[in-house]
Design a protein that fits this description.
Helix content is 62%, strand content 10%. It is built from 20 helices and twelve strands. The chain is elongated. The strands form three sheets. The protein has a six-stranded mixed beta sheet, with helices on both faces.
């Protein structure tokens, strides 16, 4: 892990080096002061030498101030280094997430990604800061305190040869039990975050159905699981301090008893026992702080593994070394395509075959769960097919670079997502350098300009998170405009007009037919009226291609299409 984390210190390496050096200088001050105290008592106080007492006191104050100065510098340097490393990790991990396929995101889950990019990385930053300070301060304090205690009185210091191995044994046993619980706690946090995200996203539904009590009961399960796991952590770690304290007090009692006898027999001066007791305190404090550091290091290690799991995850969707960088046209051909979601037992799509010429308009319809959305996601390689092949512009989609392929495909998925900012900034997600004229033109084609133009600030009108200040139909039109501004060769509309009224839907269909004639358009819809003018209509059923043809042909040949049409008012008006 140390080797792996080293590259993330690139902009804070000076602080990484300075922090432990400054920390060691602070330790020297802590170690010297007890020796100075011995001289103060045995030479100054014992001999009633006021001048020496004053001089030695001033020296001790000076050493303490210098030590404190180095400590302050080390703290600031350590914070800069620790959280600098965390920032670099977060940037790299977030960049890695941007390359994830849909499968990667489904496998790790969004709530878990949020936990890892926030609390896990914060934990690593804190532990990195502590490592640069505590991992140097307290081992050095322990080492020098032992050395100086042996210098003061070697036979008395032999007690440490018994006490320290016992402490090490206690810590080893505790941490072997604690580490699996730390990992389990992180998984419980992921589960709780998933529940929170789900319930907050559906808070309006919960309120509308009056199911607050049921939601609270469902929330209670992962919340209680996390609580129980955290209590297990506390129960295990609560053993550290009492056991350490018992060992400490036994050591202190032995030192005071043995030292008292030595002083009584004239074999030790009073100042020596005072200095030795100070070193006992330093040794025990170092041992306890090292144990605390190991606890936090265990947290950090667990979090770091979870972060590197993100960084090390590679998408199964890979580009060829000589990938094509341009699409000749918008033609689409499915050649015996089958697809199964990861961890599913059965195929979601079965042996799909059809062709669509460049500039044609294809409609897709079928019962709920017939894999309509899955089919169009394969065109943009959001997933890769398991069998067969998909050709766009005459070439297998796997032969294109992902940028070239997706830059030429405008896709509007079922969930209409707007990014907080302004209408202009949202449109620029489709084309970064889009001018106001291009944005307005796209808004007009998507039938969105009619409401955007009524805002006093028009394109600068604020878009709140997830576009919650817009209605469902307005969000649909804005997302369609964002796709159109790319001027793609292929436009995919995945049930993206469901919230539009009949008049607006008709206007949009007229634009698609008359003004976007060069663009291959694929529309998934539930309304027959939205598809009747398509050049071809694909009917899907349970992941299979049930029929393909024009509106009139399907009314005569497809029972599923005819049933859908008959169930909709005016479906057979022609």
């Amino acid at each position: 892990m140390l080797k792996r984390i080293y590259p993330y210190t690139k902009n804070v390496r000076l602080q990484v080096v300075l922090t432990p050096l400054l920390m060691i200088l602070e330790v020297f001050g802590d170690i010297i002061i007890p020796m100075m105290m011995v001289r103060l008592v045995d030479q100054g106080i014992a001999q009633n030498d006021h001048t020496f007492i004053l001089q030695q006191s001033l020296r001790m104050i000076g050493v303490a101030l210098i030590s404190m100065f180095f400590g302050i510098l080390s703290s600031r340097s350590g914070a800069t280094a620790g959280y600098g490393i965390a920032g670099n990790l977060r940037k790299t991990a977030y960049s890695a997430v941007q390359k994830f396929s849909y499968h990667n995101i489904d496998k790790i889950s969004v709530p878990s990604l949020i936990t890892r990019l926030t609390s896990d990385i914060d934990t690593v930053g804190m532990v990195a800061m502590m490592s640069l300070r505590m991992a140097f301060r307290f081992p050095f304090l322990l080492l020098f305190a032992l050395i100086f205690s042996f210098r003061l009185h070697s036979s008395l210091a032999l007690i440490f040869l018994v006490m320290l191995p016992l402490c090490a044994l206690v810590f080893l046993l505790v941490f072997r039990k604690a580490l699996p619980v730390f990992l389990a706690a992180r998984k419980r946090v992921d589960s709780l975050n998933a529940m929170i995200q789900e319930q907050l996203n559906g808070i309006h539904i919960i309120t509308a159905f009056g199911r607050q009590k049921h939601a609270a009961e469902r929330f209670d399960t992962p919340n209680r699981d996390l609580l129980n796991t955290q209590l297990r952590q506390v129960r295990i770690l609560s053993l550290v301090n009492p056991l350490s304290s018992i060992l400490f007090y036994f050591t202190l009692l032995f030192v005071l008893y043995r030292g008292g006898l030595l002083i009584y027999n004239g074999e030790m001066l009073p100042g020596t026992i005072i200095g030795f007791v100070t070193y006992v305190f330093q040794v025990m404090m170092a041992v306890m702080m090292i144990s605390m550091f190991l606890v936090n290091f265990s947290f950090g290690y667990t979090s770091l593994k979870r972060i590197f799991e993100i960084i090390d995850t590679t998408s199964e969707i890979q580009e060829l070394p000589d990938a094509l960088e341009s699409l000749p046209d918008g033609s689409v051909h499915f050649d015996h395509v089958s697809f199964r979601y990861p961890d599913y037992r059965e195929d979601t799509l079965h042996d799909i075959c059809f062709s669509l010429a460049s500039g044609e308009h294809l409609g897709i319809i079928g019962p709920t769960g017939s894999a309509k959305s899955t089919l169009v996601k394969l065109i943009a390689r959001l997933y890769d097919v398991d069998q067969g092949a998909i050709f766009v512009g005459g070439n297998n989609v796997k032969h294109y670079s992902l940028h070239a392929l997706r830059e030429n495909i405008g896709i509007v998925l079922q969930k209409n997502t707007l990014i907080s900012g302004t209408i202009r900034s949202n449109m620029q997600w489709g084309k970064a350098d889009a001018t106001d004229e291009e944005i307005i033109d796209a808004l007009k084609k998507a039938q969105a300009w009619e409401f955007v133009s009524r805002y006093p600030d028009t394109l600068d009108h604020e878009v709140e998170q997830n576009g919650r200040n817009f209605s469902g139909g307005q969000k649909q039109r804005l997302t369609i405009a964002r796709a159109l501004i790319k001027k793609p060769k292929i436009l995919i509309l995945d049930d993206s007009t469901s919230a539009l009224d009949m008049t607006t839907d008709a206007k949009l269909r007229r634009v698609l037919q008359e003004e976007l004639t060069g663009i291959t358009t694929i529309t998934i819809a539930q309304r027959i009226d939205s598809l009747r003018s398509c050049d071809q209509i694909v009917v899907l059923n349970a992941g299979c291609l049930d029929a393909i043809g024009t509106h009139e042909t399907l009314l005569a040949t497809s029972a599923i299409y005819r049933d859908i049409a008959e169930s909709q008012e005016g479906g057979l008006s022609e």
